[in-house]
């Protein structure tokens, strides 16, 4: 009758240790596999008289007036013993890891859980090795020691609240990356998310200065408690936001905890929003608002340093007629082609923006009147000779240009129209 419970103790113990270690239950498939040996063990023990695979022989001997059962173990007994041993060793590993995280303190629930598991393993080993007095099965005494240990862990140290385990799991499994660095910049610890982000976060590099790694230099070079770091990873720019907290002991700083998260998507989204706020969606140049801001900056700079600056205004001739004759999509293609021709002629340092529907401004930094006229004339001729293809039809347009030159010294400005 004892095997109706004993057969399944190991698998329930496995589920408990697995949950503690991984903070989740194993998959249904893994549980099913783990139950195979317990069910077979129950079957073997209840039908042993027909095959003698669990106990090869069961006999009674008398010792000092006491009757003692002498059990000769069969092959399946050792299969079940190996299975139970494996689970006990797994539980020892789990609770040792927790005890290590608790800095080997004896006043922790992990110590008592470990003590109970080790005690049962030792007693079980003594019986299997034939070292027990009169061959008595001492396993129940091992269960007694384990039960007392677990009672202490459960009620004295409030193990059911899982505080220590939760603390360890949060550190390991939190989605934010965590890096712990001492005051000399040496790596002390890290969590799983941090390791997934940076390959150099591994056990072999603990104790090394993170300045040995290019990414590590960027992480600690900023002294602000909250800062952002741009890092090239696999040929792509990645952005991380860091929160730095100093850990102190007796008012002395001993280490710093860097909690970081990948904000690349947020950064890209912000860049896209900024781009949409400042750029014309059709032509991919500045919209009127941004154009006026940049023009004001450039003109103030020219005034401050007494530099020539010219502004060109470009207007597409008879654009409404083009829209009416060819359609608005064709009108959009005309605008795009005009802008492309303008961009080919100006410098990268010049500023171009859409001022109105078919009107554009070009700000030519450090450009005098003669140079501005030359640029305007080139643009006018290029656009006049442009064939714009739209739905199989060739569209030709001309543009009118005006320029204003803000000169240096006493000459305030002069304007002129470039005839189309």
What does this 3D model show about the protein?
With 420 residues, this protein is an alpha+beta fold. It is built from 15 helices and 14 strands. It folds into three domains: 165 residues, no CATH class; 94 residues, PAS domain (Beta-Lactamase); 139 residues, Alpha-Beta Plaits (2-Layer Sandwich), CATH 3.30.70. The protein has a five-stranded antiparallel sheet, sandwiched between helices. Helix 14 crosses helix 15.
Please name the defining characteristics of this protein.
elongated; single chain; Beta-Lactamase; Alpha-Beta Plaits; 420 residues; 49% helix; 3 domains; five-stranded antiparallel beta sheet; 15 helices; alpha+beta
Quick description:
The chain has helices spanning 3-6, 9-22, 28-46, 48-51, 75-101, 109-128, 139-156, 163-173, 192-197, 214-220, 264-278, 288-304, 319-326, 328-345, 369-384; strands spanning 55-63, 66-73, 177-182, 187-190, 226-233, 236-249, 252-262, 309-316, 351-354, 359-365, 388-390, 393-395, 399-406, 414-418. The chain is of the alpha+beta class and 420 residues long.
